[in-house]
Amino acid sequence: MSGGDLFGWCGATLDAKYRIDAVIGEGGFGLVYKAFHLGLRETVAVKCLKMPAALSPADREKFKESFLDEGRLLHRLSKANAGIAQALDVGTAESPNGIWTPYLVLEWLEGRGLDEELTQRRAAGRGALGLRAAFDLLSPAALALAEAHNQGIAHRDIKPANLFLARVGGTVMLKVLDFGIAKVLTGTTSLTHALEATGGSIKAFTPQYGAPEQFDSRYGGTGPWTDVFALALVFVELLAGRPALDGQDTIQLMVQSANPQERPTPRLRGVSVSQAVEEVVRKALEVQPRSRFLSAGAFWSALQTAVYAAPVDAPVDPLQVTMTVPRGSGLPGADATAFAPASGAALAAPSGSTTSPQVAPVIPPPSPSVRQRRKGPVVALGLAAAVVALGGGVTAILLVRPSLAPDSSPAAASSTPAALESAPAVAPPAALPKPVRIPPGAFVMGSADGDAAERPVHEVILTRPFVIDAVEVTVQEYMACVREQKCTSPGVHGPGIDEAAVQRLGQNCNFLDASKALHPVNCVDRTQAEKYCKFVGKRLPTEAEWEYAARGPDGRAYPWGATPPACARGAFGAGAEGSCSRQGTAPAGSHAEGASPFGVLDLAGNVREWVADAWDERAYGKPAKPDPLVVNIAAKGIVRGGSWDSGPGDVRAARRIPLGPGTGDVWTGFRCVGSP
């Protein structure tokens, strides 16, 4: 038996599939083994949880079901994207030492924990980071937590040891470790009693990063606000070069955590920051949970605004190196910076592990031009791609900063298809145009040359004026609603969209790319669109209102008239010959020549737009009535206007496309209407 091999698995085969070779990490939750998958013939990691022997058979079975549920959730989510640490298997087994062992099998990762990276920096006299470097370093974890919190899931043990930087296929990925483990280990009274009876303990949190409610339940329950507290402590630690809570024992740490007179903010720890930064961090570190930011997204958005309003801090760390994300990787061309890797490699390890990671990325700040154009902060600013796995074990997120200008290198030029070279570059407007008032009126709806659902052509009367957004709702506008917790985050989802599609398409959701703050939001379903419109005091347009705004009273084929689509009039046909869309959507309002008779923009291409009506293929053949609206909660929804991936036929003003109302895809967004 190897040293420290509590279970006796080394040299044995687990579940007839995994040859256990060595213990490579130990923490409060369990052991991590290096193993070999006999079927796949590749190295894997096996995490075995420490369980008290005093558990009754009934309690063991209850825990087993909870653990397996968490493992299955992680497995399903981790398959959605290669950036998520792959959970390959979950189960329980009797170990060679006769110990009942819940285990989770994960892909093998090379890397080192942020705790070890910081320890080495301190030893070299480089412990503290500048303000923006600290913010950028933690942004992956913050965005991962923001996504988790949007789904009502809290981590409860955020600390540097649970922030793991792995290098996978030449790509730097930040992994937030042990998501869900604290929950399943402390979620039952029977397990707690068993631990007390045997004198054992499984730490549900680390005191040096503990929130008041974790030390004393009289402050309230734990939740996303608990993660906000811990994330703020890690941020202060990066700035100060030493832990924000620094006591000799748990009692001292508890006192510091809950002392209302001395909050462990940057200034209290000797760091010079702006008043805005100090106030944001102080709010995140409030003693009472209800007084804090209630989610990581709200905290990080406020901190981002404060950080980037501050003067630029110290020069770039001399240990930083540049990493280029390769073309053809499925991600936007990008540059990111990272700490120079130290020697050694280790697996994504459990809480309290002494194993180590290899690369800790620092994401550069966004271009000033993007910050100046923005109406408000965006949580994902400076980050191009992020994917979160929630439940049983690991959360992963990959971040890169997209280039804001086309790559001008010879290699980049030679890799651009000839059909795209002729597509003109478009620039976003200086400010988004104001909504457009549409007067009452009559128009001809449908097309005699279109599909059956567009016939017969018929007259529609709209008796009331309305005001329609001049452009589609942008990422920055929608994410403001997310930060207020009135909207849910975008993402590829819906019936009929399998995991392979999520993996293939998810990276094209605009909210993941900071340079697309002024592009239309996509990856939202009809319910999400309706909630946003309600948030701003508006609603979705009816199908008739949308078509009237697009073609006016003269029955145009396209918003601009009868002339076939051209690149100056919209973003459409990505990947096809004559495409006007290089990499998806264009900034909202950037195709002025595509305006409708009323001056409404982007009604052809960019993103398909949800309308309020339910799908009825025969609706046009039914008796006409003023202000038509089809209501049928059991029917599909309708999207209009085509997208960046549509051919010319789909961007016609009369084109109707049915779509499941619960579908959020990369081609679909929306705009809202209100009263004059």
Describe this structure in words.
The protein is of the alpha+beta class. Among the domains are: 13-109, Phosphorylase Kinase, domain 1, CATH 3.30.200; 436-674, paralog of FGE (formylglycine-generating enzyme). It is 25% helix and 17% strand. The protein contains 17 helices and 23 strands. The chain has helices at residues 57-78, 114-123, 131-150, 181-186, 189-198, 212-215, 224-240, 250-258, 275-284, 296-309, 368-373, 410-414, 418-421, 475-483, 499-505, 526-535, 543-551; strands at 13-14, 18-26, 30-37, 42-49, 87-94, 100-107, 110-113, 163-168, 171-176, 320-325, 334-339, 361-362, 395-397, 401-402, 436-438, 441-445, 458-462, 466-468, 608-614, 637-640, 656-659, 668-669, 673-674. The strands form 6 sheets. The protein has a 6-stranded antiparallel β-sheet with strand order 1-2-3-4-6-5. A 4-stranded antiparallel β-sheet has the order 7-8-9-13. The chain is globular and about 80 Å long.
Q: What is the compact description of this entry?
A:
Helices cover about 25% and strands about 15% of the residues.
Here the CATH topology of the domain at 436-674 equals: paralog of FGE (formylglycine-generating enzyme)
Give the biggest beta sheet. Answer: 6 strands, antiparallel
Distance between the termini: 78 Å
Class of the domain at 436-674, according to the CATH hierarchy? Alpha Beta
Strand order across the largest sheet: 1-2-3-4-6-5
Give the count of helical stretches. 17
Which range does the strand content fall in? Answer: 15-25%
Shape: globular
Based on CA atoms alone, the radius of gyration comes out at 27 Å
Share of helical residues:
25-40%
Average pLDDT works out at 76
- Report the uncertain regions: 80-84, 182-203, 312-428
Examine the secondary-structure arrangement and name the CATH architecture of the domain at 436-674. Alpha-Beta Complex
What is the β-strand count? 23
The name of the CATH superfamily of the domain at 436-674 reads paralog of FGE (formylglycine-generating enzyme)
Structural class: alpha+beta
